[in-house]
Hints:
- The protein is globular.
- The chain is mainly alpha-helical and 233 residues long.
- The mean pLDDT is 83.
- The protein has a two-stranded antiparallel ribbon.
- 75% of the residues lie in helices and 3% in strands.
- The longest helix has 39 residues, at 194-232.
- It has one domain (10-227).
Amino acid sequence: MTKIKPPKRKHLMLLVLLILLPFTQPLIEREHVVTRVISDALLIVVCLYVCYIILGGRRERQVGLTLFALVLLSSLAHYLLPSSQFAASVAFHAFLVALLGLAVAVVLRDLFHKTVIEGDDIVGAVCGYILGAAVWANLYALAYLFVPGAFSINEAIVKQVEDWQLKRSLFDYLSFTTLTSLGYGDITPVGQPAFSLTWLEVLFGQFYMAVVVAQMVGLKLAQAVKGRDRGST
């Protein structure tokens, strides 16, 4: 079996896609079929690209592609099987958590095994941070499906939780504001399991910024020292 070799700057395109994804979400509010299809298609492309560039090992890629197929099937089931929308939604978010969580774990593992840090590795660390936020966004969505009362939502945006795609956009927003310890208060946890998910995400964010940044800075300093020693000989 021929191993697929990712491009040299493999994380840059992923970062572009991850940044582009939230820009399509406001268009969903126009309730046009085309914008919704574009948003869903972009999410699928992101998941497939994650399997391609991050999950490099054979076993990792097999697991990733299996999870990707399950994400795709559950997404289609949500549209094609109206009577099973709840089950399809639960499956969609659960499989997406597994896929993106695996990607974050691989990003961290590869980073901690690095002996030389390059520009694309830094971009990859940023991608891991964004993917981590996406993991928690889907965990919040799962929590809401089972315990809607665990969240207090401002009346101005409460209608979003009634829509399949707008709800995903809303919990993406909650996740990023929680991860960065910003929190505007328009959607807040008021019960379990939202409480636990919130402090776990804050803990993940602090760990990521402290440990990952320290790892990259340490590698950069080590490279600078080696380069100086070579220059002096």
